[in-house]
Amino acid sequence: MTYFYIDTSSSYLYSGIVKDGKVLAEIKQDFNKELSKYTVSEIEKLFKESNLKPIDIDKIIVVAGPGSFTGIRIGMTFAKIFAWSYSIDITTITSLEAMQASINSKKVLVPLIDARRGYVYAGVYKNGKVLLKDQYIELLKLEDFLNNLGEDYFYITNDKKFTYENKFGYNPDILNITMMYKDNKAINPHLVEPIYLKLTEAEENLGSMIYDN
C-alpha cells in the first residue's frame, strides 16, 4: 500500500510518501507566508523523488486542523482535488493526533497549540489511546486535568510561549503518523471538512443568543 501524507496546518509543509512501511520521500520545510506558492511544486518533487505517479497512491492522509486558517485550506483543497481527480481514498486526522504519533514514549503525551487568551488546542494521549479528546480548552483546566491524572506527562509543542521543562519539540514522524492512522475510514472527498475545534465568533454569539432566550 502506498500513502500520501500532507499537513499545511502551520507555516510548514509537512508531506511525504510512504510505501510498504517505508518513507520514499518527505519534506519538512517552513515557507512562512509563501506556503501556497510552493506547495504544489514541492509535492511534484516528492513524486519525482519517489519515482511514482499520483495514480500510484492508495490513500491520502491529510491534517485537517486545528491550526492556521489559511494553511489548513491550502492542504485540504489540494488533498480533496487530488482524491477526487484520481478516485483515491482520503481520510483526515487532527494536527494534535499527528503530534502525539510523532513521539515514541510510554508517558502521557499532551500535544499543545496556543489558541490565545488563555486557551489552547490540546488532547491527552497514552500509547496512542485518547485520555482527553482533542479540544479547545482553557489552559488552566487542562493543567488541572493533567495534575489529577497522577501520572508523569509531557507536552509536545513548538510554541515558544510555553516554557515547560517537561516538553518535546514537534518534528513530525511521517512514517509513524501514516502507520498509526492508515486504517482510518475513507471519506467522500466532497465531505472532507476542516477541523477547527473552536466555534467561530459568529457561532459563539448565536449560541449565546439562543441560550439567553
List its traits.
single chain, 213 residues, alpha/beta, Nucleotidyltransferase, domain 5, five-stranded mixed beta sheet, 6 helices, 33% helix, 31% strand, disordered C terminus
Range of strand content? 25-35%
CATH fold description of the largest domain: Nucleotidyltransferase, domain 5
Q: What's the gyration radius in Å? A: 18 Å
Strand order of the largest sheet: 3-2-1-4-5
Measured as a percent range, the helix fraction is 25-40%
Mean pLDDT: 93
Number of strands: 10
Query: Which CATH architecture of the largest domain?
Result: 2-Layer Sandwich
Structural class: alpha/beta
Distinct helical segment count: 6
Q: What coarse outline follows from CA principal-axis ratios?
A: globular
- Ends distance: 54 Å
**Low-pLDDT sequence parts:** 201-213
Strand count, sense and closure of the main sheet?
A: 5 strands, mixed
Number of domains: 2
CATH class of the largest domain: Alpha Beta
The CATH superfamily name of the largest domain is ATPase, nucleotide binding domain
The H/E string reads: EEEHEHEHEEEHEEHH
